[in-house]
Amino acid sequence: TRAYYKRRKLEQYNTIDDAAHLLRRSRNIMVITGAGISTSLGIPDFRSKHTGFYDKLRQKGYEDAEEVFEINNFDERPDIFFSLAGDILPNLTRVTPTHAFIRLLQDKDRLQTNYTQNIDNLEAIAGIDENRLIQCHGSFATATCRKCKYKVKGTEIFDDIRAARIARCKRCAEEIERKKDAPPPLKRNKSSSRTRTFDDSDEDEDDNIPEAGVMKPDITFFGEQLPNTFFDRFTQRDAQQTDLVIVIGTSLKVAPVSEMPNYLPHPIPHIYISKEPIAHVNFDIQLLGNCDDVVFELARRAGWDLRHEMIPVGL
Ligand code: CNA
User: Which of 37, 55, 181, 241 is most open to solvent, judged by the fewest CB atoms within 10 Å of its CB?
Assistant: First the structure.
């Protein structure tokens, strides 16, 4: 293996043709994706200047935009999250050419794992197998009650998100209704075991009207743990088996995903595709531009036919 690594280290990769060559020869490709792969559908990313969600939040007066995604802030002021989340809610039916490219890698049996930071669930819509997809930051696909942990399909709270109102838990609400309808609980009076009386404590509760729990989309907020499957699969399997890493449409600013490329030994070639160059992580090849265009060209040079409704026929 030493000689193998030495030989690999001497290889230099610079151009898009080198990248296409790497694509063709690799069998276990790790694709790490971020918000940039969905922007062509009109879903804003976080950190792009002028168009990103964070700039928009700053214009609305939120100085520290990341605070909107802090779990403690969500629990204290869910109204803030619900007043803004409609803007990043995905259209569930369409995917981008970049999603189609990842699907193509899968169809060619070259996709080891797609680690996505995206919460729009579009990889699943594009048909990436469940067992090749790690949604590092969860997704809008499901939502869970912060109070009773009741889980529902994400679509059940989409109307609330679109209407910018707090989504409340139906099960909690039913429970509250049931308690309201039920006759007040009875208990034995201490002075006489035969006399029945109302429990005083319930009278106190009446002053304190209970509220149904807030439904939180199952996206990972700052301050929440990433799913175990992320760490297990990456360290115990993929880090040993991957033969090419392609990072697409992410600024790599959020740990631990930002640390993944550096964790992988450098004889494994690293390719970066995004609009802006990156300096804090070392990549062999950086292909800069609109990722939909870049992956189309990359596939073409690899001799593959990437088809998608947004790619004009005959190109
Ligand atoms: P980011 O920090 O906003 O970075 C996005 C990167 O993509 C930037 O470097 C952009 O230059 C680049 N980019 C934007 N559009 C394109 C394009 N068309 N072609 C090529 N490059 C492009 O977002 P990250 O994903 O790095 O940050 C991680 C956050 C963003 C995760 O926690 C996500 O949940 C969160 N997020 C996800 C979505 C989504 O699911 N679609 C939307 C907004 C934010």
Answer: 181
